[in-house]
Design brief:
CATH class of the largest domain: Alpha Beta
Number of domains: 3
CATH superfamily of the largest domain: Thiamin diphosphate (ThDP)-binding fold, Pyr/PP domains
CATH topology of the largest domain: Rossmann fold
CATH architecture of the largest domain: 3-Layer(aba) Sandwich
Radius of gyration: 26 Å
Strand order of the largest sheet: 9-8-10-11-13-12-17
Number of helices: 24
Strand content: 15-25%
Shape: globular
Length: 623
Amino acid sequence: MIPLLGQIKGPEDLKSLQLPELEQLASEIRQHIIETVLENGGHMASNLGVVELTLALHTVFDSPHDKLIWDVSHQCYPHKLLTGRVHDFGTLRRYRGISGYTEPRESAHDVFTAGHVGTSVSSALGIAAARDLQGADFHVIAIIGDGSVTAGMALEGFNHAGYLQKRFIVVLNDNEMSISPSVGAIAKHLDAPPATSPTLWETLGFHYIGPVDGHDLAALQDQLRAAKAIADKPVVVHVRTQKGKGYRPAEENPEKWHGVAPHNGKPKTMSPKNVPSYSQVFGDTVTAMAQADRRVVAITAAMPTGTGLSGFARAFPERFFDVGIAEQHAVTFAAGLAAQGMRPVAAIYSTFLQRAYDQLIHDVALQNLPVIFAIDRGGIVGDDGRTHQGAFDLAYLRSIPNFTVMAPKDEAELVEMLWTALTLDGPVAIRYPRSAGEGAALPTRPQPLPIGRPEMLRAGEDVAILAIGSMVYPALEAARALSSLGVEAAVINARFVKPLDGALLKSLALNFNRLVTVEEGVLAGGFGSAVLEQLEAQGMNYVTLKRLGLPDEFIEHGERRLFLKQYNLDAAGIVSVIQRTFPELFSVPWYYNVESPDNHALTSVPGFGPDVQRLVLDRGLTG
């Protein structure tokens, strides 16, 4: 075990350490984070930048009595190492291991769950107000990055805090970065040299301290103690840090090393055959659309690289807008562009678009404006866990009038959907996963898709599987396995969640008494619910419909494949659910039993082909 770090069981162990020992500990923390993140994946540059700041906070304040609230909290790894989780740190972001974000279920030192930006000032102010109402006495410290301050909610929190004048501290971690370089007027204000006139924060009613060198432990401790002594108003401590500090690759390219895939940073989004990611295909396609149509503009909320728009930004800088971490503004800004005849494409991660739900309704759909929403990271995103799963988009989008909602089965269909969206005169959402594509050849002359029309991929007479987006290929694999069992399943690529082809669904209902829908999203209000509603509207109440999707719960962190297996959204799971739902289809009785000690029971039964034998070995199908 690392000499000093292994002895730290909690923040109280830091109090007796002298400055040279704390500096040694900082070095050990950095090395431990680098080794773990390269192995497990996670956030590298942001955590390396706050090591000294975290040590200073834990030596000056007394957590968990004093409350540390980390904005976004993707920079909480040093905090976790100093609060009793050093021995569990190897499980970081792994299934049933510790979270990559603050998690109150893990530790009393994690005060507030956060995976989205801009929440720390508001939550810290609420905690401070509760403290005063309850007659308690402790310090409240919000740690927020300069990029997070661009979030409208953060500014709302600063505005209210300046009015209430509650005693609490905001540590502004200024590294000139969010994920990409920070943009906007506030970033320029932070870059300006200190002046004799009041700062923005003083104008808002805060006492201002800084800027402070965020890697000078002694200076940090001195200024935090000074902030701690101010009892009559809120305080901003402006700290300047270097993102990626102590690891040269991350120092030189903090954007690349913000989020790191496992195995020494090999990109997760590229397959062994170097198949491009959906994000890359999206970015290339929108660039081609902009070349063909001068109305096309692209918008991102501080994610030009993550969304695949860096190439667009280079090709069309005057038509590219990075609005900072401000999804609400991004959506309404796009609406303004569309209202004047432009064709904006707003690329926003699924989990972050949730933050702009009212803007989707009030500013875009209500006026039927032609904004194209490219929704990246739809479905299960894996290691980022509960705060980042793109589980809700299909459900919340299909409830909004005027929206067309699509999800491609592969990267070729994504290209077709983007060009299709450009032909429509209302809002369009295209949702795709965080992954490499399927290796499909991209169309050289993409043709618009007929709106609402699905695609029949496989004929069958026993059961029809209607799959959307990322679930189409698992459905096809399941159909091949079912064929080995003597059951012929039709597979329909729905392509559209909204609108649905009512006539086709009626035809399916007349030809099949058994329908299965499969979606990588919540069942409540999702694609399957849309099919059910359409069948009801068509008077097809006698049809048996089985819906597969995500349950009514928040999905934890871990590899995507584990959750697909857990929720029966892989091929083997689809097969097992169909067998249990429609046992009359199967000539040989068998059932799904993951707990069986004999996972090879079916391999010697006549009539079971290699596909099913593989499923038996993989899933424990026994009979």
